[in-house]
Every structure is written in structure tokens, then in C-alpha cells.
Amino acid sequence: MTGCGCFDINKQSHNYGFYKAQIKQRTPAVIVERKPDMKKTLFSTLLLTFIACCSVTIHAATMAIDSLSGAVTTNEIASFKAYMQTQTPPQTPWGALNGTNGSHNLWADGDDGRDLEAMGEMYEVSGDIAILTNMIGWADICVSQRNDLMSSANGGQRVMWTGLKDKVWCPNEPTDPNAKYAGSENEDVEGHIAYCAKLILENPSIWNTTVPDGNPFGYGVTYFQRATNYLAKCDEANDEYSLKWFIQAGSNLIIPPTNSAWIALDENVTANNRQMMFTSGFQRLAEAHELLGDNPSRVAQYDAIVVATVDQDLTGMINFDPYTKSGHSVYDWGYYPTNNAPESVEIHGEYDMIGVWRAYNRAAYGYTLSPLIPFANTMVYVIYLGTNTFAGNVDASGGTQSPIYSGWLLTADWNPQAYITVAGASYTNGWYKNKTDVDAGILFMKNRRYLEFSVSASPASQSVNAGSGTSYTTSLSPLGGFNGTVNLTISGLPSGATGNFNHSAINLATIDAPSTNLTLTVTTSTSTPGGTYMLNVIGTSGSVSHTDTVSLVVSDFTISATPSSQTVTAGGSTNYTVNTGNINAFTGNISLSASGLPSGATVNFSPASINAPGSSTMTVTTTNTMPASTNTLTVKGTSGSLSHSSTVTLIVTPSTSTAGVNLALNKTAIASSTWSTNYTAAMAVDGSDSTRWSAASGQTNNQWVLIDLGAGTSYNRVLLKEISFPRVTSFKIQSSNDATNFTDLVTGTTIGASNTVMFAQVASRYVRLYIPTSAGVPTINEIQVYQDAQLFQNTSYGGWFANFPLGTYTMAQLIAAGGVNDDASSVRVPPGMKVTLYTGDNFTGTNVVETADDPSLIDNGINDATSSLKVEAN
Fold first, then answer.
1. Which of 22, 28, 128, 824 has fewest C-beta within 10 Å?
2. Are the CB atoms for 760 and 791 separated by under 8 Å?
3. Phi/psi class of residue 371: alpha, beta or left (left: φ > 0; alpha: ψ in -120 to 50)?
4. pLDDT tens across 709-725, in order?
């Protein structure tokens, strides 16, 4: 069997002795005796870099802890840095080159893997970039010692049990009987490397900074490049080895391969501590990739493995033998989930706790606090025997030891007394002085206890339009077992803005999770100035206060319209340009509208909504009947609750045009008979669809309505409306100049709710609707008479004809109106209008403007050549 994480339970005493032997082996004297080699040269570079980053004088190669309470001191950090300057990474994952002393696992649960963890913890405590940079130097060497990247002379390029030169970190010496083995320790090594990558990725401010070591292995010039290369090296190792051989499809459980070559190694992967070694790599890689946002599917895959594994192991440990000691719930559990032999407190039990603590603190996994408290209680009330002495096994059996492995310090998050117990023993015995993981482990938890809780708000920035609101998620996490109440406040809000938490105070003793999320809602008003504001999210408990800062970007827009004034003849249209300006990266869509229009006028925006900056054309269209007026138009832009406006002037002058004017409106009208004074002929020409003329009771045939236009008037279109009671079965439109003799213009059958009839233009004083037959008493709501522009097939207004009210007509629209392309030879133009004829479609080609009737288009060169036209007020 291999050692440490891979020991048979009967060999734990050997493992403990080796661990202490490693401490002796790594004294400065031993380092001096080593022959110069590439690693030595690299270490010298790293050492000089690390010294350059330090601001303290090195006095002794031991670490200091000033006290077990309060803030971590400058001296404590400096002594750790100084001690690390005396250390050197191993030459291989198993120890010295060509070593034969049985050493192994140095980069996993051995001292060098623990050194990496210690540097990570101390960087988290201090934020000292020199510590992270040194960690990167060690991580570089660790990565370079992957089997396929190491030279055969150094023990790499090894053919493993798979028959391949696998991308693994070989835990054993080349001469070891199990030299071809690589299992749980491999993923633990990846966990240390991924921890370094994760710490880099958590600090975007250094991503593009050059790592000051000369990039000795080519893993990247910048911190970001190092992190992503570390992840790539670990991912490819997983794809080709760990995921391939050890993960059960479907369940995502970690299981042993069934290959006979693996079975011959007589190794296991199901022990709790070994499973937690596997989860070290998978969880930290998931966390790092999540920070990158580069591979959600890989994050999901790694997370699924961790959850399946921890679920299984926790179930086994919790249910193995729960009991009560000194009134507290405690656990006894085995080395394997189903093994009756109690778990050892040393590396095995330690790694059980490290894996559970790590999984608990990834909130996405959903583990709760209450089932974990008994683990910490077991340390305090069962394993601890008093006077800085601990039992060898989790059930208090297995002899005694003092002090105890550093991973147990993490259980202080579940019971603060665990810190007093574990840290106190290590402090009293001075074990921390030359054990980096013990020193860092104590200071890591000491810092958590001092901080009591953490406050973090996300996202880092939110953008809103003035007058709108947004929200942030505020996460509160108890640290070191803190269970007090935290009050939340916010500062830095701009004027007109408010900020409210859905809960302004949280008792962390009631939180059965590593953290709890609250919602901070920030609402701005339309008066809030555009700008970027730094908001301080503050959590306070007694004299302890922590703050996280987020930014609030308030955006706005401006609106203007040009020119400031336009004049238009009634019946015509005019344009304004509406411009929007951007304040502080405004991103909303702005809907445009206008008010203050004279009665009958319409407005159109093209486009109707715009971004900022942007522009739109505002077209105001008037009617022929519109009187002279001067109008102030308010142009308004609206985005959500935010709106701004600008004003322009519209001057309308009267029109002499008859285009679009109902020539029969309110003219004198008489009828053949009338039902009553409520249904007179005048009501058929009053412009209202809600009134009507009705013939007398019993009168169904040969009924009529005669309209006196007052003078001879040209017209070519009549609109009939029989809305209330459609009964007419035949009708005629007739013209007359004496109200006695009539000429039929159009004949038809039914009328219905709306019926437009067109005919070649005529001029007369009288217009009559004649109804020969009706299914009942005829009732007419409206008779309207119009004069449109008309095109004719032949000269002198002969052949086919087509009516064209005010508007623009492409070739397709010309044809839809009844015209024929390239076939018009004469045109009628109502007074006050102009018709522009184009030889090409879509108003292209040669054009001719007609402002009066033209019986022949031959003379102006556009005969049989009209393909599109515009009819406008003149």
C-alpha cells in the first residue's frame, strides 16, 4: 500500500512517523547540502523574487503566533513569509531524485502539498501578493512534475497500470512495487494547483499583471495566463485519467476500475479520506471555472461528482454510530463507510473533515450546518482527552497523540470550542513553528474568528435608468462559529435614491447554512442625477463592522427637436428631426410621442422608438379643412418611468385645395320622404356615422336624397354608408345642374356599411343618391362627395381611370388603385393640389409636376410612361 491518504488502516503509525520525518528532512541544512540543479536554480529565482516582495528582515527560520485571539498580526504574516523563504519544493512528487527511502505523496497530503495549501490560506488572510506569487512558483514546479511533462531521467514518462504514460502525478518512487499506481492523491494534487488558480481568478485586478519570475516553465507571463494554464493541465489530466477510470456513469460516484492491472495493485478509492482527496480537485476546478465562466458543462460535471461523493460519505459517517457524549451529539465512523474499524484522527480523519468543510462552504451544494456540528463535538468531547492530548481514533481509542493535524481546525466553524482545543494544543507544543499548514491553519481560523462574519454583495455593478430600480444580493456568512446578530445598512446613495434590505437584521444563530442571502433593493427617482456611485453595504454586529462596495450606474437621456419652427399649408405635411443624447451609457429604448397637435393633424415617428444617442424623423400631417393656427408641439421621449420632452412650433396656413374635403358636408339636402324630424336628409350629410336619414314608413322603392353643392363643383368619388340598417338592393349616383334632369354616374346593388364609388370627374351643382329598390325602409348614415386626382388612359380623360387621394403611390399601389403602368395619357388635378408623375418605380426617373388638369401628357414627354406618383397639397 502507498502512504498517507492511501494507507491501510493498520499502517497509520508508520504514516505519522514519516510525516514527522519529513519535518526533519526539510531543514535549511539539508537544503544547503543538495547539489545544484535546475530546480535549485529556479528556487533561487523564486527566493529572490519572494525576498524582494517582503518588507521585513528575516531573523529566524521559524514561524510566530503572537496570540490565539484578535487580528492576525504583521509579525505573524512576516514570520510565515520568512519561513517559506527557507523552504524549497521537492524534486519529484515522491521526494528526492532516485530516492529509495519509501517517501511518497509529497504534492498531495505530504508537506509540499500542505505548503501550497498554507500559502493559499495565508494569502486569503493577508492579501499579500508576495505570498501568492511564491505559491505560483511552487505550483509551476508541481505542474511540471506531471508524469508526461517530467523527463524519464527524473522518474517521469512512466508507463502506468493502464499501459499508458498517463497525465498523472506519480505518488511513488520508480523502484516502489506500486510505481505504476496513481489514485486519489492525484486529484488532491490537482486540488492544490486549482486552489492557486482560484485565488488568482478571484482577484481580477492582477489578471493582466506580469508574474515576476520570468515564466520559467512557459505557463504564462501574466497571473491570468498562469491560472488558465493550471486549469487546462488539470482538466486534460481528468479527461484522460480520473474521469475515464474512476467515475461511474450515471451515479457520478467514485469507484475502483475493474481492470485486472488495477486490481493487482491492491489499492482502494472508497475510503472516506481518499474520496475527499478526489473531491479536492473536482470542487476547486469547478469553483475556478465558475469564476472564469468559460465552461458551465464542466462545472456541472465536477459539481455532480463532488455532491454524489460527499452525499454518500456523509451518509455513511453520520449514520455509522451517532451517540451522545456529555450532552452533545457526536459521531463515530469508520475508515471505510461500512468498515467497523474506527477512523483514525490523523490524516484519515483530518481529510474527512477537510472534504466535508470544503463541500459545506460551496453554497451551491446545499449542505446544512446542523448535521456537521456533531463532527466538531466529536473533536471537543471525544477525541480531546485533556491536557493538550488527543485520542488516536475518532471513538477515543487508538492510544494518544499530541498535538493533532491541522485540518481539524476547520471544524471550529461548526463549534468554536474546536479552535480552542486544537489550536491551543498546537500553540502550547510549538508545533506551528516549523509546520506551515499548522501555522497557517491556526491563523486562518484565528482570522475568521476575529472577523466574525463576512459581507459580500453582488453583482459588482448595476446600471439603471433614472427613475428605475435594481437589486443586489447581499450574502452574510458566519465565520469561526460566530452566531450573533448582524445589522445591515447602506451608504453612498445618490440624491433621490433609496435603499432597502428585505431583512435589515439577521441572527446568524438561526442560519443552518454556510451563508444566507438578502436582497438589497435600490430605487432611484427621475430627479436622480446620472453618474456612477459607490454604495457601501455595511454589516455591523457590536463593535465589528464589515463593508463591501458595489457601484450603481445611473443613466439618463436628453431629447431635442429641430428646426424649432415649421410652416405647413393645410392638407400638407412637414418634418422635424428628433435627437436623443446619452448620459452615462443610457441603454433603454426610448418611445417617442407628441402632443399639442391641432385638431385633425396626425404625427408619425420614423422610427417610433430609438436608443440614445439616436435620431428619428417626426412627420406632422394636416388636413385640407384645418384652419390657420400656431401650435406648440411637445415632443416626448419615454423609457420606463423616465421621460423628457422638448417643444417646437407648428404654423398652419389655410389651404385652397379641395383634396380630401367632403364637398357635401353640411350642405343643403332634401329627400323623397322622411320618417320623422329625427331622421331628415340633413343627417346624411352631417359627417356623423351615428345619425341617419330614413324614408317615410312604408316607403321602400324609388326613394332618394338630393344634395345641393351650392354651385357647379367638380367631383369624382362618393362614399356611401348604410351602417344602421343595410336594406338597399339597388342604387344610382346621379348628377344634375337643375335638380330636375339627372345623369346616371354609377349604378350598384347593395351599399353596406361603407361603399366607395368612383367615376370619371364631372361637374354639377346637385348630386343625388337614387334608390330604386330596398328590402325595407331605406336608411342612409352618410353621403360624402370628394374630388381626387385622377389618371386616365387616353388623352382628354378617356379610357380607364383611377382615383388618387392625397398620398404617395409606388407602381404596385398605382396598379392596386386601378391604374396601369406606363399607360396614362391625361391627368386631373384638383385645385390646391399638385401631382408629381415619375417614369420609374418608387419615385425614380424623370418626373413631371402637374398643378392643374392636363388633357394630354404627350407634350411634356411623360405620355404612357408613368410608373409612380405623389399627390400633395400645393
1. 28
2. no
3. alpha
4. 999 999 999 999 999 99
